[in-house]
Structure formats: C-alpha cells, structure tokens
Amino acid sequence: MSVKMPPIDEALMTHREEIVAALRRIVPGEGVIDGEREMRPFESDGLTAYRQLPMVVVLPSTTQQVSDVLRYCHEHNIKVVPRGAGTSLSGGALPLGDGVLLGLSKFSRIREIDFENRVAVVEPGVTNLGISNAVAHRGFYYAPDPSSQIACTIGGNIAENSGGVHCLKYGMTTNNVLGLEMVLMTGEIVRIGGRHLDSGGYDLLGVITGSEGLLGVVTEITVRILKKPETARAVLIGFPTSEDAGACVGRIIGAGIIPGGMEMMDRPAIHAVEEFAHAGYPLDVEALLIVELDGGKAEVDHLIDRVEAIARECKASTCRVSQNEDERLLFWAGRKAAFPAVGRISPDYYCMDGTIPRAALPLVLSRMREMSEKYGLQVANVFHAGDGNLHPLILYDANVPGELDKAEAFGSDILRLCVEVGGVLTGEHGVGVEKRDLMPEMFSEIDLNQQQRLKCAFDAQGLLNPGKVFPTLHRCAELGRMHVRAGKVAFPDIPRF
C-alpha cells in the first residue's frame, strides 16, 4: 500500500482478545466480527487500491450501543473508524489494523416523515434513494442524488458532503440537512439543529457535514424533503469539441439560467455509457451535455428554447429534448451508469474528484489531454459541469507493473491543476487518504493547524478516523492546548508523547 497509515500499536494488539470480549458485552449476538475471513468485506471502501483488515468490526444497532462502544474505546485509547455503506471513493472508511471499524448498517430505519414541515427523520444506514422512495407517494423527494444513491447511505453522505447531478440547483448534502444526533468520542450524545431552517450561533451543522468521520458518529439525521417540480425535461446536446461544450456551460449559467442539473461527458465516456445503458446518446460527437430544466410548464418550455439557442451559438451539432418522463429518466439513467459502464472497457479505473471555476473548464480539458499523452493512460471524463465538479476516470490495468503508480501520479497532477486554476481538491468524494498528502497544495501549515484545532475540540485524543485528511496529524497538545509560560511547559519532568 503506497499510502502510509499510522503505525500499528503492537502493545494494544496484545490485548485484542480482551478488547473483543468487552465489545461483545456491549454489542451482544452477531454485533461483533473478529474472524479474518469474516472481516474481509470491510477491508476497503470504494477506493479498492488500498486494503487493510481492521482489528475488529462492531455493528451496533442503537445509539446507546454506539455511545458505550466509543466511551470504552476512549477510556482504553483505541482508534475508531466509522463506516457507512463503504461506497467512499477516497479511502475515507479504510480500516486501521489496530482500530475498531464501527459499521452503521443496522441503523436502517426511517423514524418519521413530517410532510407538513417537509422533513424526514432517518437513521444513517438508510440509503439515499430510500428517502425519495419513502416519500414519492406524496409527490416529494430528497434532492441530493449521487450516482451511487441506490447503495450509499445518508450517514456517508453527511461524512463526505455528497452532491449529485441535481446539486447545481438544489444544493449539496449540507444544504439539505437540518439537524442530527451525534455521539462524541467520549460517548456523549449531542443534538445539533432541528426541524428549523437555520439557528443562531456557530454553524456546527456545517462543520460536521463533510467532516469525514473525524468529529463524531452520526446516529440520526433530519433532512429536508422537496415537492417534485410540476415539469422536468432534459436536453441532450452534442458538440464537436469538449471546449465548445465547456464554453456552452459558462454561457448558460452566465445567462442567468440555473438548470436542475447539467452534466457533461466526453467521447470515451459517451461510447461506454451508450453501449451499457442504450440511452440514445449520439455517438458522432466529442462531448455531450445533459441539461435539465424544471419548474412550471411555461417556464420550462421558455428555458429550453433559450438553452437551444445558446447551444447553437456554441457550435452544437445535435440537440434532442426529452418528450416524456420515461425518456427523461433514460437520459439520466445513462449518466448515472457512467462509472460501471467505464468499468466494462478497462480492467481498472481510478475515479478522481476535483472542482474548478466553470470558466476554466476548456483549459483544464486541454491540459488533461496533454497529461493523458504524458502518462500513456486514457481518461474518460464525466463532470457535474454546472458547478465545475470533475470526475475524470483514469483507465489502467493493475496487473501491469507500475500502472497503478502512473494512475496515481496522473490523478495527483489533475488535482494540482484544479488548485492551480482556482479550484479545490475535492467536490464531494472527500479527502480521505487519497488526497491527504496533497492538502499542502491548497492549504498553508497555518490553515491545516487551525483545522486540526477544530478536530481537537471534538476529539482531543485523535482517536476518530486518524490517518485521514491531514498529511501530518499533530497531537492536540502540540497545537496549543498545553499552556506554555516563558518557554517552559508545566511539569517538564513528566514524559510526553
């Protein structure tokens, strides 16, 4: 494994049987898994290039059990890695060899649906799509819709601040979560937010959403549900070059049009998806935009006319508007199948995630082609074009010596390019271990230290998901929690670290 993780505490591992027995008392029955074979399904998340068996897997089913497990681990200085469905693509749920993997899969109930206040109260193991399915009979849905929505869970969505094809207009997870219940590393159970849209004071809800399991374990979430729009239609627009498609994205947004979703694919992705999903995508174009307009019927018809006019000005070669709901869903079914579709044309692929200013899209596409030639690896591009969130899929063969290393280097160069043009290292997949060592490309040491001080406020011993996000993890005492006077610490004779 090329990514270095915290060294295994061999002294702690001598007490493994004692730890497992204590955890069995907290979570009886089948709630503790400690056999090597049985733990294999938990050795990695969606970033399967990196694998590590945990010390033990614990599957609690109540908030009190989560509290008791964390309190025990806190008292015995045991690391804990929270895990949802394991669909993370950044190694965020990669286990630790001397840590407890805390799985939330048994938290799978929808506790309440309140249509009058337009909220649903759910447990973290509920799938993203499960919420929309539960409220569909009343014409409601949950807006964030990552491509993995059939499998990914709300708890994981909060950890990574997941987006999806409709986040351009309706926001990321952070814009659709109103409240949560969370267990701190000490075992304390806290509630933040509620059913109201906003509250005074520090935005702790915003801090926790996207914190990648470093601050606490979420056990209940209150999410906002929306009424389905009266009309929604999708437009497929083909272009002779990716640069033309990128320019069209900027022109649409610049015209004051905010589509429900706006996605882009290049030629390799288009052909892979069409062969897999048969969505009716044109095969004689270099780039394809899917633009969805929603709202009242008259408004949607007007916006479609405007989008078609802008597309023609940007040299669009084809334009096709969905004529019914089934056709609209088919257009999106192709896009949501992009990742598995690309998996059919390459033994392996490395899915990247970075975000850039929309205006930089043509430049970034051009530079990525140059990188592709440099590394001798193909790349299929799938973008949340409206908000500049890129998902380049680097194609490689892990059985060819050195190709994984090249894919990783290629991906790192793409992320450096994102930062160079004014973007960020991640849009929705998180930092995890994948982008951890690139954090200094975007943040200064002062920035990173300040972020770690925030973690210390929630997890003073650094036991929750260590080895993720921060390239160098400092102890909280090193970040100023220890009082120093006249250059001397108190009680200097006491051994430290």
From TrEMBL:
Pfam families: FAD-oxidase_C, FAD_binding_4. Its cofactor is FAD. Coiled coil: none annotated. Gene3D superfamilies: 3.30.465.10, 3.30.70.2740, Vanillyl-alcohol Oxidase, Chain A, domain 4. InterPro entries: FAD-bd_oxidored_4_C, FAD-bd_PCMH, FAD-bd_PCMH-like_sf, FAD-bd_PCMH_sub2, FAD-linked_Oxase-like_C, FAD-linked_OxidoTrans_Type4, Oxid_FAD_bind_N, Vanillyl_alc_oxidase_C-sub2. GO terms for molecular function: FAD binding; oxidoreductase activity. The keyword Oxidoreductase applies. This is FAD-binding oxidoreductase. Keywords: FAD, Flavoprotein, Oxidoreductase. It comes from Pseudorhodoplanes sinuspersici.
